[in-house]
Amino acid sequence: MYMNCFEEVKNITKDLVSTPSIVRSLGGETNCARKIYEYYTELDYFKKYPDRVKMLKTVDDFVDRHSTYAYVKGTKGNSNRTIILLGHIDTVGVDDFGHIKEYAFSPDKLPELLMNMDISEEVREDILSGEYMFGRGALDMKSGVAGHMHLIKYFSEHPEELNGNIIAYAECDEEDGSHGVLTGLKEFKMLKEKEGFEYIACINADYSTGYNIGDVNRYVYFGSIGKLLPSFYVVGKEAHVGQAYSALDPNLIVAELTRLIELNTDLCDEAQGEITIPPMSLKQSDFKEGYTVQTALAAYAYYNFFTHSMSPADVIKVCREKAVEAFDNVIKYTNESYKKYCHMSNIEYRELPWKTRVKTWEEFYDELEKDHGEKFRKHIFDFAKELNEKEPTLDLRIFSVKVIEEAWKWSSDKSPSIIVFFGSVFSARIEMTGKTEKERELLDSVNNSIKKVQEHCENPIKVRMFYPYISDSSFMALSDDVETIETLGKNMPSWKTKYFYDVNEVLEINVPVVNIGTFGKDGHMITERVHMKYTFENVPNMTYSTICELLK
């Protein structure tokens, strides 16, 4: 069967887009979750089974916000096999819309306003084509959630088609700290115990786009890219700028780190013939608050690092090596500069005293624990815990730096150093190879569904093995072994005080994932837009067919 769902998914999408839900905004994510909850509770099925739909407040969160889920139990047989439909309802902000930001959530009015602005010819053509819906969240990814809502409605009216169950989870906080999905994992576990659910697959509906302007393909992605944030805390030696060679500038070391890491294709990761984008700098800064003629004492930097096959242990190892290389290069450079300056000034050259000193957070912590014992361990844990209690909204990356700064006070050796650590949320890589029965079933079901829908889609639908953007489907399974997660924790200053990746909760679900998601252009931009026919019609039909194949 091929569903005629375009108009309904379009109307739901417009309704969701018109409900602002900027991540962390007061009441926004909850308002959107409530809109979805009200949609479900109006359906006859959930009037009969009200306990099968729920608004869910996030746990261990500093923001008051909610997600919504609903599930339908099939009546075709007695199977407990269950599919999770995943999508997020939060969006990034709208400050980029400038003077028209009040229309950022108005799909009907926004195109006309954009036509009066300095936009590209491609955007202008897409507006005139009438094939796209504009608005913040239209592409990323309320249209995907809308498709799932339609499927829940359909199966609530036709449970006899399912030999098993489906649950659609519309989560908050995907764009920031993933509190929505982390809370969802606890709820999935509860449902597993209450209803006997046997989770077999997760279908995400996050957005996709072309790889270049001329790319006419549509994409379905198995698995998901992994993401880590290797970070570097650099301590230098301060001096008056008039005594430049008495200083070791941490900004120079950070600059060299960026030169060695950013866009370095040697650091691309490969699996199944697919390559990650190389690392990119997301932050570099020193800690001087105002102008002085003293060089900086410390600086820090962090970099986006995508993975297909590398574990956290692999990433921390290669980043430590790059830190050593950067430190060596800066020492060589400063000595060569000083030697040339001495020759120019006709003064005696003596080699500068700097020595390369690089430690991971694990190495630094263990060193201090060896020197100070339980006293240090308790102090740092209590410091981090109290810091989080006093400043719960503190950025996770800054939180980590503050913990390192506190630990540095305990170090007897204050010579210039680099401390390498992980500074942010861990998004696990998920690689599907067909090694398990569940993976093979999902691979086959999706490929068969693509074939069925392709005749209704004017663009080629291509399959790739890693979703190329960060998504919360990374919390649905684990391809790395548990030991590597221990390495992650040992190199996170925020571990178990502000952040914790609970391996056991992930393994309670541990299902293969596929992204059958929205398609459009310019996600997170003022010209964000979703292609309507593909997203409102082809995508729900591919998801429908996949569900029917898995639960036949």
From TrEMBL:
Classification via Gene3D superfamilies: Zn peptidases
Pfam family for this entry, one: Peptidase_M20
Gene Ontology MF: a single term: hydrolase activity
Source taxon at top rank: Bacteria
Coiled coil: none
Protein name: Peptidase M20
Organism: Anaeromicrobium sediminis
